[in-house]
Amino acid sequence: MPSLFSFIDNMLTYYCPNCWKRIPDGQKTCPFCGFVLEEFKLQTYEKKLILALHHPLPERRNIAAQILGNINSTRALEEFEAILKSGETNYFFLKVVLLAIAKIDSPKRIELLKIATTNQNTMIQELATTLIEMVKENRPIPEWDRGTG
Known about the structure:
Shape: elongated
Distance between the termini: 39 Å
Order of helices and strands: HEEHHHHHHH
Oligomer: single chain
Strand order of the largest sheet: 1-2
Strand content: under 5%
């Protein structure tokens, strides 16, 4: 009879933190993109969060975006811009990304929020417009949006 630990281990899913494809446990290098998995341990917390913006589980992406906004990660702005221009349609993820952008103290945040005002989703357009007003008026942006993360 298999042990509880082997049962749990068989239920775990492992992903490459670079390409986010599913990989077998125990791999040293991703068989899909060649990423050396030990290098992930050497990445900064901020870089790991930026990589997690592409995690296959939506909750993980939302949490990563929220934390990046809360820690004022200017390095994340480039990736947020790519997400806004990618045609992403997940409303909840886009909402979290916009809130994160608005929290990051950078002149580029207005430019990125303006990109979102042209999004195909009118709720995203309206949120971007509201956030632009909040930033310009120096009003506080919520620290954590429990409705999306």
